[in-house]
Amino acid sequence: MEIYKEFILEHSVEIKTSPEKIWEFFYNIEKNYNIWHPEDHILFKWMKGNPLEVGSTIYSEQSMRGEVARLKGTCTEIIQNRKIAFNFDFPTSFMCPKIEWLIEPNGKKSLFTAVTHYKFGKLFLKFNKDKVDNILKTTEKHMKEEGENLKRILEK
Q1: Are 23 and 32 in contact (CB under 8 A)?
Q2: Is 0.85 surpassed by the pTM of this model?
Q3: Residues forming a β-bridge with 83
Q4: Pairing of strands 98-106, 83-88
Q5: What CA–CA distance (Å, rounded) separates 120 from 4?
Q6: Domains identified in the chain and CATH numbers
Q7: Buried b / exposed e across 43-61, counting CB within 10 Å, b at 16+?
Q8: Residue 10 burial (CB count, 10 A)
């Protein structure tokens, strides 16, 4: 019997730009983080290593559900112009172990997909269904806004 239930949230948006331009945006995420989502994003810093390299560590702050989430993590998979993946440190990893940003070329456009992985204990789900639903809905809304904002920024 599994003690966790996994949830994978995805949001995709087609952007009239090249994968290289999307990659460049994320390579410069320290300066682009606030403009990407002005209402929620506070800070993004590379703590150790170089931008977009496996093993590099990050620290970010963003507002989620009215509270500041302080996130620490490590780049775990990098495929230039195609994929960026981060695993989060504890305690975030207990509930949200991983996020991915995927870039697929499509002619003169690109498909950007954000993927957030959640896991919740079955007992926690049983007694906190409303809280989990709120977390998932808030995350879906945030991911959609990030996708729309990225499209707007890069199509200027």
Answers
A1: no
A2: yes
A3: 79, 102
A4: antiparallel
A5: 5
A6: 4-154 (3.30.530.20)
A7: ebebeeeeebeeebebebe
A8: 12
